[in-house]
């Protein structure tokens, strides 16, 4: 028996979690002995038959009723009350179609986490209702089942479903690599794009979903786009992860242990509002979960009073703080603690408090005055307080001596400035101090280690998540830098002299940076000489139009000081529309009035600008800054930073990481260096940590890798003559990679090559490989799996540069995809059950149009007459609107049936069948496999552009001819005029 989806991965998952081994049992319901219950918290396997639920039911209500009776004394005394709870829960499941999945999930979570009450107490007093016991986990019932049939509009069968007390909380999809290109992503696509839409009720109680193909395990929350699904790592085994099933098994049992799932449900599930005002659900990545829990654990144990957490820039520290703060506030043993979140600078304040506010975290106060902070602490405020770290400069000793105060300091390395760490410790002598940093702390920086580093922690860090971890887990993107234009680089000696007194200029405010530049007037004059700025901006314009804009990304420009920002803006306006760039700087009391009026940006304007920049549809393409927005600024759409300023170490690392956030189709962040900061990259990022030395890779390294990648990819086609044009050439290439294994091996090599190509393009080094690459890209396109859900990781959509190359010299007009009104049984049923005047009108119009198109066929004639009579009745008010809808739906059903019968009759000569005959007639016996694809392509393209009567309009004919040419081009058949004419003749006749 070979491997299948069922017998390897799905059965392995069940075996891992329950001890039941299907692969050694034979009868349908005969399974080997499960593991004995350990600690009473163990998943038990039940087959779909044993569950005793109907295909339309989401909950196993018999189990849920037992749990309600078991966990609620009031319901135990009167078991009939359980039905009332079940009715409430069913109402939420049904409401998903109206309110949407995230809101329904949020409402159901309130029930599952025990936040809801019912009037079941004495004298109808409201008491909390428990669906799950969080204190004694042995009192819950944990069941795993497989092939879980569920019906809404259609029936779906997810592979693995986990239930707690009869409530399905996890859905898993197991794929087996029957072909190499099938990956976890195909399973995730099925959960996210198919199941969540077809059977949304199943996901209303969902904690998380997972997908695996036995090599990697990824998980995500409901409605979470696939690029944000994340892997789960088993603690301490992060780097030595076992390969294949055993590695996945360890991760699965860890992630899906009942304790872990219930912890994620109760303490790590955030419902928050995104920039588009949509409700979204956020669950933690592994490093956020682990980091927050380490903080909570350390506070509860109460022995060690500090800890330093280093998680690389962009890996989600704001959320880690939200998770930790929430869980600390909930911990009963801490007796309502005060959690102080300290941020650095004002712009981080808006990011962190924004994260807390969007997630509706309870009891959050922000304060930016030490006096107010002092009052809060003296008044013994028990809340989450957000404040700024430098407010502790004026803090008095012993402001509050309580032990249950926990301070979380963001960007902790800044505490080295002016001994803030010591002042903080003096003000709150018994508090817990945790420092979070996105950049490693230098050993030389004694202050930060003194304040936060605990001797008990290996290497001084309580939790670390390095650059390599975050790239490996796809939490952030790799960074590339391009050194630029040597003739505009800076005279280093002059620079070092000028900057000798200042360790790190970007830690200065805008005004201080100006003052500094005035001190080094000579330097400043060179940096801002109009000729140099003009040259740089011209280069930025070319680079942006070639490499950034085609992909839909945006960019930041970092200039030496505020006046340079203005200078760059004025120069940039010569190349782009005025609205394409905005300057973001602060102004001070000493600035002249005109400068302030024109360029000053206050907090609310800045927030608007940032939102506009993040909006892919807005005209704003560049933000020009000098010190603002270099830290704590989150804009995933920003892919490139043009750097023309001296920054080093922490600030440099923070600044360049503005470009490493995940965004659709973005594969790396790019830094274009005009200043020469990276002339010595290792020196620019001088940290003791070896892992940081590799943070940024030079594009020249990629150039070196290109020839090898090209020859590896071409090696799949040894003996294929690449000079043969057209259909024959492509066919020879396809024959060289005729099996799925060969195709997928080629796709793997081509994917790597395409990544290099997109990173380097447009670079002259590519010129000599242009023809080969174009040929490979065309082969890749032509052998891509036809169905949309195979090999989503390997058979990716080609990048903008590659697509551009394939379509060079091919001018194809726009294809207007008019929204088609689909008429089928589901649509009619829907209109019948939910009469909507707009839809009813649309149905009526559609039927009239169809009858007209069908002409004189008797069956349609009589239906048409019935429709006329029905309309007539309605106009005269002789029929109730509900009866009108019923009758209309009846006519529609009969129409669909009549069309189906007619189509069956015409089946012998469908357009597709006719085209297939044509191609088989014109080609020899070698072609059948490809013919099917060509015909399918032509059929798909023509269906989109044709419209009734197109044959009699020049516009219609032109569109269809263009589409046909485009379809034939893919197979290099576009020059065969006889084929084109005959195919067009057929299309004219049959479409």
Question: Could you describe the 3D structure shown?
Answer:
There is one protein chain. The chain is globular. The two termini are 47 Å apart. A hairpin with a 4-residue loop joins strand 9 and strand 10. A seven-stranded mixed sheet has the order 1-4-7-8-9-10-11, with helices on both faces. It has a seven-stranded parallel sheet with strand order 16-17-15-18-19-14-20, with helices on both faces. Strands 23-24-22-25-26-21-27 form a seven-stranded parallel sheet, sandwiched between helices. It is 47% helix and 11% strand. It has 991 residues and is an alpha/beta fold. Helix 33 (837-854) packs antiparallel against helix 34. The chain has 39 helices and 27 strands.
Fill in the keyword field for this structure.
seven-stranded mixed beta sheet, seven-stranded parallel beta sheet, alpha/beta, 991 residues
Topology (elements, then pairings):
Layout: H1 5-18, E1 44-45, H2 48-51, H3 61-71, H4 73-77, H5 81-99, H6 101-112, E2 117-118, E3 127-128, E4 142-146, E5 150-151, E6 155-156, E7 160-164, E8 167-174, H7 184-198, E9 208-212, E10 217-220, E11 230-231, H8 245-255, H9 258-267, E12 270-273, E13 279-282, H10 286-301, E14 306-311, H11 317-330, E15 338-343, H12 345-358, E16 364-366, H13 370-378, E17 384-388, E18 405-409, H14 420-427, E19 432-437, H15 446-452, E20 463-465, H16 467-472, E21 479-483, H17 492-498, H18 510-519, H19 521-527, H20 530-548, E22 554-558, H21 562-572, E23 581-583, H22 593-599, H23 603-614, E24 622-625, E25 638-643, H24 649-656, E26 669-673, H25 681-684, H26 690-693, E27 696-698, H27 699-714, H28 726-736, H29 740-760, H30 770-783, H31 800-807, H32 825-833, H33 837-854, H34 858-875, H35 881-906, H36 911-922, H37 928-945, H38 954-970, H39 977-990
Parallel strand pairs: 1-4, 8-9, 14-19, 14-20, 15-17, 15-18, 16-17, 18-19, 21-26, 21-27, 22-24, 22-25, 23-24, 25-26
Antiparallel strand pairs: 2-3, 4-7, 5-6, 7-8, 9-10, 10-11, 12-13
